[in-house]
UniProtKB/TrEMBL annotation:
Keywords: Membrane, Transmembrane, Transmembrane helix. The keyword Iron-sulfur does not apply. The gene is CG4928_12. GO terms for molecular function: potassium channel regulator activity. This is UNC93-like protein. It comes from Trichonephila clavata. It is found in: Membrane. The chain crosses the membrane at residues 58-79, 91-112, 124-141, 153-176, 315-339, 389-410, 438-457, 469-495, 502-520, 532-553, 565-586, 592-609. It is a multi-pass membrane protein. It comes from the Eukaryota. One of its GO terms (cellular component) is plasma membrane.
Length: 616
């Protein structure tokens, strides 16, 4: 009789134990999000279908961003490449460019973080693209009263545009690396389940937590398999693996056993609440899908043993994904030189009646010193009014089409930032300039602006237009754009396999060869292949630096990416402003020596910054 009563009491305690455990789990997870009903679909149907859609959506947004960037800068570069020749009267072309990049520097310090925080990366990008249209349109009538104000507007908008590009690329890089990691872990989890014969239940649209809690009993074992990293989009899936032992041991217990069980529940409740507090705090800090630059760890618990932290490969995957995405976007931006060059070449060619060039009295190449001569005026003559109007109209239409594509097809990042005006936001770019890695990267960032401005303002005028004619500027720039795009995309692939240092070392070597070649080469219209060779060398260097230096900023300063990208473009704009500013006052050889000195400082600073970052 007593045995029967004890057994009944034990069964009641057992029921209470499981009810408390169940209610505890439900109340705990309801803090984050209510569970939707269990899906009746299989693991493959539910997870793989969602994974494919998520991956394709991310790649679609990358493609839209690249296409809109390509079209905008096709229109912009078609006229920018000709500023030093088509608008050389009174120095209007280079003065407007210098004004644009001077405003770029001021805006980069104060505005991008503020604007992106207010409008988000997509709206900021569309607004910035629209601000380039007046500068393109005012080439109908290039006068200082029109070109300077339009340069001012484009210069202010430039940092918003490029910072929003960087933030958006960083965001989708994080999402895509999460997607790749989830595919890998889903495959691994599925194979383990098939081996052990476990049942899989899929919960739809539950955010993946930062932690993992295991409540292990003799009757059941619950584990959560999550992707390493931070929060993911609300559309992700979350698999809960339940292993049920069909033959559970018969337990003979008493009140003592019941007390121990209740103590265990109380202890587990405290542990899980602690984890929840940590998780909710982490969501608040990183709700914009930003990942910490520190090592990521995965945690597991087995048979009530102590938790063990295992280093993850998530950082490596994220770095390679970021390099690839920035490489593709860099390719889109730099290959705009191809289409802008073709556009300007075939339109300007309609003005040419005879292809005769005079080189007898011209000092072209490194010896060019902005001295007017009959030879230069003959070779570098500007287009007719009809040709100017046709070229400008075409560029305006292409730029408006690029804005339409971005506004309609680009998805905003699913993030909501609480905006408030604060001088702390405006000082963010200034504060990040004090960081050690940033100080070491400043010379190379300035150098990236110097080399691009030199090609636009000096190479086209001193080498191509002077010796071979203005309308060949577009043809030579075609080669430059192709090589820029190829080197940009290949550099991202190489970084993924061998790391950043070999890529930047290659860029430094090519850079030195380019400077040496431009110093000793005397351009002549009888040897046109040499123009393409020089442009190709320059394109290799620019393609690597422009894409991978931006990706490097995204990796080094991920905790404050808006300010970091603004700082990069500010220093690049300083280089461009200086180059355009002294373009009409020094000989080409002096400009090459200045770039050589800055590049030596820049690459030295990069290797020091890389070593400093690795030590952390």
């Amino acid at each position: 009789m007593m045995a029967s009563i004890q057994k009944s009491i034990y069964n009641c305690d057992k029921i209470v134990l499981h009810v408390n455990l169940l209610s505890h789990l439900v109340s705990t997870h309801s803090v984050i999000m209510d569970f939707p009903p269990l899906s009746s679909k299989s693991f493959d149907e539910e997870n793989l279908l969602h994974s494919k859609r998520s991956g394709l959506k991310i790649l679609k947004n990358l493609a839209v961003l690249c296409i809109s960037t390509l079209l905008l800068f096709t229109a912009y570069d078609a006229l920018t490449m000709l500023q030093s020749t088509m608008n050389r009267k009174g120095g209007i072309g280079v003065i407007s460019q210098a004004t644009l990049y001077a405003c770029f520097c001021i805006s980069a310090i104060l505005l991008p973080k503020l604007i992106i925080g207010k409008f988000g990366s997509k709206r900021t990008a569309v607004l910035g693209m629209f601000c380039y249209v007046p500068y393109i349109a005012y080439n109908y009538y290039p006068h200082l009263s029109l070109m300077i104000p339009s340069s001012f507007i484009a210069g202010l908008a430039g940092p918003w545009l490029w910072a929003s590009y960087g933030v958006y690329l960083n965001g989708i890089s994080v999402l895509y690396s999460d997607y790749l990691e989830s595919k890998k872990e889903e495959t691994t989890a599925k194979s383990k389940l098939i081996e052990k014969g476990k049942t899989v239940a899929v919960y739809d649209k539950i955010p993946k937590p930062e932690y993992q809690v295991s409540n292990v009993t003799k009757d059941s074992e619950d584990k959560y398999y999550e992707i390493e990293g931070t929060s993911t989009p609300p559309s992700c899936e979350y698999a809960k693996v339940i292993a049920c032992n069909e033959s559970s041991e018969t337990i003979s217990g008493s009140d003592k056993h019941s007390k121990k069980s209740h103590q265990k529940i109380k202890k587990d409740t405290a542990i899980e609440k602690s984890h929840l507090r940590t998780h909710n705090s982490q969501i608040t800090k990183e709700k914009n899908y930003q990942k910490s630059n520190e090592n990521i760890f995965s945690r597991y618990t087995e048979d009530n043993e102590s938790n063990i932290l295992i280093p993850s490969k998530g950082i490596i995957l994220l770095a390679s994904t970021t390099a690839n995405f920035f490489g593709f976007h860099g390719m889109a931006h730099l290959t705009s030189h191809i289409w802008s060059s073709l556009l300007s070449y075939y339109i300007l060619k309609t003005d040419i009646i005879r292809e005769e060039f005079s080189n007898s009295s011209c000092y072209c190449g490194a010896h060019f010193c902005n001295v007017a001569s009959d030879c230069f005026e003959y070779n570098a003559g500007g287009p007719s009014l009809n040709t100017r109007y046709f070229l400008t109209t075409t560029c305006v239409c292409v730029s408006l089409f690029s804005i339409l594509i971005a506004a309609v097809f680009l998805d905003p990042l699913e993030q909501e930032k609480e905006f408030y005006f604060s001088f702390i936001n405006m000082k963010a770019t200034y504060e990040i300039l004090k960081r050690k890695e940033m100080l070491f990267l400043v010379p190379l960032s300035i150098h990236s602006g110097l080399v691009q401005a030199f090609y636009v303002g000096d190479f086209n005028k001193s080498y191509v237009a002077c010796a071979w004619g203005t309308y060949h500027v577009g043809l030579v720039a075609l080669c430059y754009g192709i090589v820029c795009g190829i080197s940009s995309v290949l550099s991202g692939w190489i970084v993924r396999h061998v790391g950043r240092r070999p890529v930047f070392t290659t860029a430094a070597i090519v850079n030195a060869i380019s400077f040496a070649y431009l110093l000793v080469w005397t351009p002549h219209s009888n040897s046109p292949k040499m123009f393409f060779f020089a442009a190709g060398l320059w394109g290799i260097h620019v393609g690597i630096i422009w894409s991978q230096l931006r990706a490097l900023y995204g990796v080094f300063f991920k905790s404050d990416e808006e300010a970091a990208f603004s700082a990069f473009h500010m220093w690049a704009a300083v280089g461009m402003c200086v180059s355009f500013g002294y373009s009409n006052f020094f000989c080409t050889s002096i400009k090459i020596y200045v770039m050589l000195a800055v590049s030596v400082l820049g690459f030295t600073g990069y290797f020091i910054a890389e070593a400093t970052h690795c030590k952390k």
